[in-house]
Amino acid sequence: MSTPVTVEQVADAMFRMISDAAGVRKLKPTDVTKAVIEQFGADRCSKETCKEAIRQLVDSGRCIYTYFGGSYIELPQREIAE
Amino acid sequence: MSDKKPTPKLDELETGPWPSFVREMKRAAETSPMAEGLLGVVELSYEDRVGHWKHGGVVGVRGYGAGVIGRYSDVPEQFPDVAQFHTMRVNHPAGWFYKTDALRKICDIWERHGSGLTNLHGATGDVILLGTKTEELEPAFEELTENGFDLGGSGSVIRTPSCCVGPARCEWACFDTLALTYDLTRHFQDEIHRPSLPYKFKIKASGCPNDCVAAIARADLSVIGTWRDAIEVDEAALADYVRAGVDVRRDVCDLCPSRCLTWDDKTLTIDNAACARCMHCINVLPKALRPGRERGACLLIGGKAPIVSGAMLSSVLVPFMKIEPPYTELKELIGKILELWADEGKNRERVGEFIQRVGLGSFLEAIGLEPRPEMVKHPRENPYVFYEEYFEEEPK
Ligand code: HEM
Ligand code: SF4
Ligand code: SF4
């Protein structure tokens, strides 16, 4: 049995993805969830863990939810009236 | 009021015979600079024939991805008081019942932290608190929660579930719409506040097929009360209607969509197996007829009323389900639908569009439901039709 990844590890992996995509592509919560499950493997990383990780990212202020037609998860940014 | 400007076009709207939103906005503007600014922007929009609001999406309250709708003026130098004009959605109580002091509290909070203008209730059902600045969002949220209110849904989440007044005020309710709505709202808290879906998902519950919240046309998942046994008839009350001059044949039987009523000037015969549960006869003769006793709801899926890509009516998903606490069967079904659609749905694709794309067959297979004749339009046009076979299949 492979050891499950921790919520912190998932949150860090998501945070890297979101930082790398910043300014290039907007990622939805489902995008990062699918990507980290692929990265760690479904046997090590559950959807529940991903949900917890997103909660941690947003509640800690490392990421924020944004809305531009659909909902995304992004780095905190200065308010811009695009 | 720094940006007070003449508003000839708005003034014109006030001259009509009906109450005008302009009058209310002007009244609010006496104390609220934001309401004053709003008058100016709207006047300018009428002059220029373009809207002066920009949609923007980085505002919210800590932890939530929903409940705040960002708006900015594209003429902030002309109207600095409404440079930001964000809306907050507040989760309504099931059935929209408030004590007067609760309403006063909401209004006081919004006069302190926003424009003082509301739209009670919006199409979502939420209290829509119109217009505030970014720095007022957290303080407003704090005061709302202190007083027992929470934000509602916006964005790619389960939207605040809503329902008709149901058994609180209406004798036709086939299940407790209020209890269900409250329970679902609590159960799906995360999915209401934290976007994790391809797009919005609306749940609306009506206690009977009169469907007073128009769930069939507006909800992705509709829970519409119905019954599976026979319509109950009170012969004495029926006789009273006839004495009072109601033409039962013309006004009731001839308008029954399934032509399952006959009237021989004394007795009303109902072919309940053919009845489409449309409520028509019950609505016309409310004292004489009532829904049967074996009550529950019909679940429908896929309705939406958007401006962007066309409206869709819901279709039947589960012809009959008992709706009783703790609502396990319904919650599990909703859970399966959300999981499938979150995994496979495209960005901004409503669940009804998703079902059209993948096909009803594969959708049903993926959520583990058996196909049923009620799910398709033909051979009968009315989706509420119950076939004899259906009754026999059900375990007693
Ligand atoms: C300050 C500016 C605006 C704010 C704060 C705002 C906010 C909102 C809110 C809160 C709703 C949901 C209302 C409800 O649930 O009843 C809504 C609906 C909508 N808004 Fe806006 N909006 C603004 C301007 C605009 C403009 C300029 C347009 C189009 C030119 C627009 C188009 C729509 C449409 C099409 C809907 C859906 C209506 C429905 O289906 O009920 N909005 N808006
Ligand atoms: S939908 Fe039916 S139960 Fe609900 S308020 Fe309307 S008539 Fe009454
Ligand atoms: S409920 Fe509608 S379909 Fe059924 S008997 Fe009455 S009128 Fe006919």
Number of strands of chain B: 15
Shape of chain B: globular
In DSSP terms (H or I, runs of 4 or more residues), the helix count of chain B works out at 15
Strand percentage of chain A:
5-15%
Structural shape of chain A: elongated
Strand content of chain B: 15-25%
Total strands of chain A? 2
Low-confidence stretches of chain B: 379-383
Mean residue pLDDT of chain A: 92
What does this structure look like?
The complex is a heterodimer of chains A (82) and B (396). By secondary structure, chain A is α+β, with helices and mostly antiparallel strands. Helices cover 49% and strands 12% of the residues of chain A. Chain A is built from 3 helices and 2 strands; from the N terminus they run αααββ. Chain A has helices at 7-21, 29-40, 47-59, and strands at residues 64-68, 70-74. In chain A, a hairpin with a 1-residue loop joins strand 1 (64-68) and strand 2. In chain A, helix 1 packs across helix 3. Chain A starts with 6 loop residues before the first helix and ends in an 8-residue tail after the last strand. Chain B is of the alpha+beta class and 396 residues long. Chain B is 34% helix and 15% strand. Chain B has 15 helices and 15 strands. In chain B, the strands form 5 sheets. Chain B has a 5-stranded mixed beta sheet with strand order 7-8-9-14-15. In chain B, helix 8 (215-218) links the parallel strand 8 and strand 9 (221-227). In chain B, helix 4 runs antiparallel to helix 5 (137-146). The longest helix of chain B is centred in the last third of the chain and has 17 residues, at 328-344. Chain B is globular and about 75 Å long. The termini of chain B are far apart. Chain A binds chain B through residues 28-30, 33-34, 51, 54-55, 58-59, 61, 64-74, 77, 79-82, and chain B through 54-60, 62-66, 69-70, 72, 74, 76, 84, 134, 154-157, 190, 194-199, 342-343, 347-348. Residues 51, 53, 69, 71, 85, 87, 122-124, 128, 130, 307 of chain B line the site of protoporphyrin IX containing FE (HEM). One iron/sulfur cluster binds next to loops of chain B.
